[in-house]
Design brief:
Layout (H helix, E strand, L loop, with lengths): L12 H13 L4 E2 L2 E4 L8 E3 L23 E2 L7 E4 L1 H8 L10 H11 L3 E4 L6 H12 L3 E4 L6 H10 L1
Parallel strand pairs: 1-4, 2-5, 6-7
Antiparallel strand pairs: 2-3
Helix pairs in contact: 3-4
Length: about 160
């Protein structure tokens, strides 16, 4: 059995230099420039996005990304570009358009009514977008089940199960 130096593979200096730069680039802070908002969730939470791997960061002002290890630069993060999360955008807009803009919720609600057989709502006041959408649903001939009035069959079943 031979002892001595382990065998080395010939590596050019260029390749070695590129590998070292790639490894070192994780330690150079990259500025956090995007923030994802989820408006359909309670409180409309928002999370900063890792500039290298694109995941939402669980903690604000962490030194490194939990997933890829990228060092994060927080200078200027208050001016981060706000984007609507993909899942939230899909839920909000129901594939009626690509970006959140004025009137998109109105178009989304009409799209939902046009592709539904019944309208289940919680309408507790006149006026507003919910009232308009329920009126549009009734105009289209859909049954409107209002959970706010307490007389709907769905609410009665829920109350029976909780008693």
């Amino acid at each position: 059995m031979k002892t001595g130096k382990p065998p080395c593979l010939p590596v050019s200096r260029d390749i070695l230099w590129h590998i070292l730069l790639a490894l070192a680039s994780y330690r150079v802070p990259r500025p956090v420039t995007e923030r994802v908002v989820f408006p359909d969730c309670s409180g409309a939470p928002s999370y900063y996005v890792c500039p290298r791997c694109g995941i939402t960061l669980e903690r604000e002002f962490a030194a490194f990304c939990d997933r890829c290890g990228q060092r994060l630069g927080w200078r200027g993060c208050r001016e981060a570009k706000i984007i609507v999360g993909r899942a939230a955008r899909r839920c909000l807009l129901s594939n009626t358009q690509e970006e959140y803009s004025d009137g998109c919720m109105h178009r989304r609600n009409r799209h939902l009514v046009d592709n539904s057989s019944v309208c289940v709502c919680y309408l507790n006041k006149d006026g507003g977008e919910t009232d308009y959408t329920v009126g549009y649903a009734r105009l289209k001939g859909l049954e409107a089940i209002n959970l706010a009035d307490g007389s709907s069959p769905a609410l009665a079943v829920t109350r029976k199960n909780t008693l």
